[in-house]
Amino acid sequence: MRRNRDAKIVATLGPASSTEAQISELFEAGVDVFRMNFSHGEHEGHRERYNIVRGLEQKYGRAVAILLDLQGPKLRVGDFEGGSVELKSGQKFRLEAKLQVGNTEVACLPHPEVFDALEPGTDLLLDDGRLRLKVLEHGNDWAETEVVIGGELSNHKGLNVPSVILDVSPLTPKDIEDMRFGLDLGVDFVGLSFVQRPEDIAEAKKMIAGRAHVISKLEKPQALHRLDEIVDLSDAIMVARGDLGVEVPPEDVPLLQKRILRACRRAGKPVIVATQMLDSMIHAPTPTRAEASDVATAIYDGADAVMLSAETAVGDYARESVAMMDRIIMRVEKDSVYREMRENERRAPEATAADAITAAARQVADTISAAAVVTFSTTGSTTIRAARERPVVPILGLTPRVDTARRSALIWGVHSVQTQDCHTFREMVTKAIHAAKTEGFAEPGDPIVITAGVPFGTPGATNILRIAWVE
After folding, report:
1. Among the listed residues 12, 37, 56, 151, the one whose alpha carbon sits nearest the alpha carbon of residue 406
2. Does 217 qualify as catalytic in the annotation?
3. Contact in structure between 65 and 189 (CB atoms under 8 Å)
């Protein structure tokens, strides 16, 4: 099940992708990471899908990653008389924390932390930005606003506060319960929603205690004020363009996406571009040209992975969506312009022995036209370093740990394989040659470049570079 591309595909599971046959189709079409969206569904349904994915690993002999995506702190208005109201531009509209049922003049907003953060002139967005209010004055549990953009507002519609940092944890009681459930199952990544500051990530990592890696979802513009700190603390980043596109003007989203991708590339952290990538394929067998260009642009910009949401969760053409994304990625990666862009953006390695060895491995592999760069890594740090260099040859990541093999499924260019631990240098070379042959990367006579750390099993100790020839 070797992929013929470097960038990875993340696909969301849901009603349209719940059976073993459906999930198997998506995997065969090209999915590397399966996302379980805990904003929807019950625990038992997620457990069933989890078990199906783990079964696919055994069937196909390829490590697959599973992402638990937490709902996060959703802000919503309460109920209205008759289920909805019509707001008109220019009218006054009041929000109250303790109100029971709203009407055309007032609504319940049961989130005291919002009122504490408001200032006169603050914009409030409702229903994914379709309605806009401006705060005139406020207290601890109320706010008087003016309707700037009106429309219909119905029960439990969402609210966004784009211009302020809310004093709210990214982990709600529901998130904590969901996260404990997922960690007990054995998920590989936890997606942290609505990250605003580095402290949000530290809070989550303390609770996770190393049982999974943290993907910080950037969907609040406030997070961009401390972008480098957030990237540094995170194991991976997701450009979550849904809520981000609500809270910033549409014309700013492409610029912010490029800024985030560049920050992740500098830090060598995997980054996923998500939301509405092939949105029309929810109900159509082919995407728009603009959507195909959107996926291609993310790959040209250096994304490690691109993600499908509703396309595979509830869409009529789930398998076709994955196959289309797979074809777009492969087409871009064959383009000479793509290779030139990767070469031009390459930075000098950090002044460490591990980074110097990894940079040299990439250059040697290119010079001798190696069949692959083979990495040995217990924690995955050597493999991530290799991917940061963006070599022109595939990366074969060998590890004795199944969790490392699964997490490597998200990393650009990496084909991960779980193998027995090495105890001697000769054993390492033998295992690398055997894996390169059996996994379809090399034939007798082909050179491979091997990197590892000695003593074996020491995290971050990449200090060996070896050229070997497949026998």
Report:
1. 56
2. yes
3. yes
Whether 442 maps to a domain, the answer reads yes
150-173 pLDDT per residue, tens: 999 999 999 999 878 888 888 999
319 is catalytic: no
99 in Cβ contact with 107 (< 8 Å): yes
pLDDT at position 115, please?
94
Concerning whether 74 is annotated as a catalytic residue, the answer is no
Q: Residue 437: pLDDT above 80?
A: yes
Q: Which two tokens stand for residue 233?
A: 């603390």
In whole angstroms, give the CA distance from residue 203 to residue 217.
15
Which tokens in the block code for residue 342? 């990767």
Q: Which one of the listed residues 3, 5, 8, 35 is annotated catalytic?
A: 35
Query: 357 and 445 in one domain?
Result: yes
Query: What's the structural domain count of the chain?
Result: 3
Q: What is the pLDDT of residues 96-154, one digit of tens each?
A: 998 889 999 999 999 988 998 999 999 999 998 999 999 999 999 999 999 999 999 99
Q: Are residues 152 and 206 in the same domain?
A: no
- Out of 5, 49, 62, 217, the active site residue is 217
Write down the catalytic residue from 12, 275, 404, 462.
Answer: 275
Tokens of 185: 């199952």
Model pLDDT, residue 170 = 86
Given 76, 174, 262, 437, which residue is catalytic? 76
Nearest to 469 by CA among 374, 356, 330: 374
Type of residue numbered 353? A
Give the type of residue at 92.
Answer: K
Q: How many residues in the chain? A: 471
Mean pLDDT for the stretch of residues 318-339: 97
Q: How do residues 287-325 score in pLDDT, each as one tens digit?
A: 999 999 999 999 999 999 999 999 999 999 999 999 999
The per-residue pLDDT for 459 is 67
| Angle subtended at Cα 79 by Cα 77 and Cα 80, rounded to the nearest 5 degrees | 110
Supply the CATH number for residue 252's domain. 3.20.20.60
Is 275 one of the annotated active-site residues of the chain? yes
What predicted TM-score, i.e. pTM, was given to this entire model?
A: 0.93
What residue numbers bound the domain in which 365 lies? 353-469
Q: Do 65 and 108 sit in the same domain of this protein? A: no
Written as six digits, the tokens of 305 are: 């992975």
Structure tokens at 101: 């049922």
Dihedral sign for Cα 402, 406, 409, 411, please.
negative
Give residue 2's pLDDT band: very low, low, confident or very high (50, 70, 90): confident
